[in-house]
Design a protein that fits this description.
71 residues, mainly alpha, two-stranded antiparallel sheet, 6% strand
Length: 71
């Protein structure tokens, strides 16, 4: 039986990945861009840059912009 810390850390990691994919979808990118994290240093900075971008206005292939949908 796995320890509770393993289950809670894997659950937290799953939530982080879900949020990152949702953010990538907001800017019109595929969730596959998370794999760039496998490239040391460069991957971190690319994803940081993507996180700082504003979402696409209107609707993209992944759905409506959450900022505009709330208004």
């Amino acid at each position: 039986r796995p320890p509770r810390s393993t289950l809670s850390s894997s659950s937290a990691a799953s939530d982080v990945y879900k949020r990152q994919v949702r953010r990538l979808h907001d800017i019109g990118r595929s969730g596959w861009w998370l794999l760039i994290n496998l490239v040391p240093v460069l991957g971190f900075f690319v994803l940081l840059y993507f996180a700082l971008l504003d979402g696409e206005p209107g609707v993209n292939q992944y759905g409506a912009n959450p900022k505009q949908a709330a208004v």
